[in-house]
Predict the structure.
Amino acid sequence: MVNDNRITDHPILSIPEMEEISFYWNGIKLIARKDEMISSALIANGITIFGHHHKDGGAQGIFCANGQCAKCSVIANGVAVKSCMMAVTENMIVQSVEGLATLPEADEKLSFEPIEHIETDVLIIGGGPSGLSAAIELGKKHIKTLLIDDKNALGGKLVLQTHKFFGSQEDSRAGVRGHDIGKLLAEEVLTFPSVQVWLNSTAVFVFSDKKVGILKDGVYKIVHPTRILNAAGAREKFLRFPGNNLARIYGAGAFQTLVNRDLVRPTQRLFIIGGGNVGLIAGYHALQAGIEVVGLAEAMPSCGGYKVHADKLMRLGVPIYTAHSILCANGTEAVESITITAVDKNFQAIAGSEKTFACDTILIAVGLDPLSEFTLEAEAAGIPVDSAGDALEIAEASSAMFNGKIAGLKIAALLSGEDSNPIPTDWYAKAEALKAHPGITKGYNNCADESGVFPIIHCLQEIPCNPCTTVCPTNSIHTEDGSLMTVPLYSGKCIGCGKCLLICPGLAITLVDYRKDAEHPIVSVVYEVSNHSVKAGDKLSLNDINASALGTFEVLAVQDYPKLHSQIVKLSVPKAIAKQVAGFVIQAAEVSAPLAEPIIPQRIADDAMICLCERVSVGQVRSLIRKGISDLNQIKAITRAGMGPCGAKTCEVMIKGLLREEGIPTTDVVPNTKRPLFIEIPLNKFPDGSVK
């Protein structure tokens, strides 16, 4: 078996030299990279089905890559583990889970070691953008802080982001790529002696005696915090549709983890469901990883993400189907195709509008749910608790960093006994702007002149972003009222430096230069998918902001900016279209062609799985709701929905959605009684020799 699914050429990420080790999959010797997760090693070797469910024999594979579900479970050295959270080791014996796993013999030589107890002023759960930003502020104030994260590196979702960030340079490092921001924050937090960092550490529960159980590198410890900051992030939502139990249906976070953290190409042909920023950005990341993006479907009439993200994806050749949703996933064990359908204003499928596309993977990007468990547990235990980032409110990482900074300053002031509010008044307005949803879309306000050189700003939607206004050396780019949420405008004297092109996170600025030939000006377009090579002499199909074709023109030159991982492509075009040029196509139209005949499912929507762990269908739960049952615990007792290894982390949201669909008021729904532990832990981790 050949591990040919490694990414060996990437326009943004360097390809490090990695030590290789051997491991065994169902008796076959394979090669992995040292310290990578089992799931990534398997997918790199072309293995995407990790086992089969004991109830229906359905194929199991990765979904979240974040330890939140249990679809990726395997047997590693005789123990059932989540393969996305367990690193492969030399000569590890990994086996697929076929039916019910056979448990290992009980170990009669349990070690009864005392459990270590640690005291700290602040416990931060989560080492992502908000947790790191808060820890830095606490470190500056010399507050004793323990920062824990369940991954083997700090940064959270920043590690997965290869695009340049929005926001402002001052408050959120706008114009810097997310993975670089993660490294900068991680390096800074480690400079503070008062901040201790635990990696590979998962918070298990906040107990009623005001203690927090933490599993650190497989060793159980107890932490006694004065305060807690929940910066644990969010988990991805799933969807109800026939075929949602097939393998190779990924959450966006799992996909980005594979391609951007582990440099593994998990698919050749990808279809995306969800047009928020997460789905749009994942599509762009897929192109950078050399993956064909067949299309993207969004149920709303327009994408909920930033317009510049959607525009960029369409210009590169990826069709976006708004007012469309998934009808079904098709395949025997794993995804082989997807059928989408147009939907009406009530999100009901419109018969006759079905289209089927060949693809091997479906990416689900339909939103996130805050990881609020630790906040609720701390409140119940009486521990002062704050939240930041997605654990507080779902927003962009630029917002998470800023509200994490605010949370850190607030906590430091409370613990230091400061009387005054340490947060500058204008910070609250900035915080609101950074988390704001996209505003209205305006028309172009381009320079009427057709001489000299100047930028064309294709960013027409109000979004929280302004690095182009701060980088311009002649101060010729500004916003209407100077605020973060208004559309940038050009007026002044451009010198043609191109700085605004290279810093724009949305790749939404071009440069038009009439100085050499007013009839055929030179248009400069920024480009950063260089593994789709573009060179002088190539002929490119140019398009406007809406991806409408403008004609085919020859590339005059390509300027490389290796430190910025960007290129500027220069083309000579007729002046009639010069200001309209916004980009060019790199993906052939045939990639996205639908099949001649759509595949219409014989199954109905109620056949979809609502609980993947226990294989409970939508129809089973719907029938109980129609009998008057709105208690999630009763539904669980009858169907086992929510009783599986993920602990209802995936199905509860879908069941609540089904209750709303059936007209049950939220106030009438009795919530699930949460499990006392956040994750599964072997019992032999808990014995305490200090207890007699």
Q: What stands out?
A: The domain at 116-234+370-434 is CATH 3.50.50.60 (FAD/NAD(P)-binding domain).
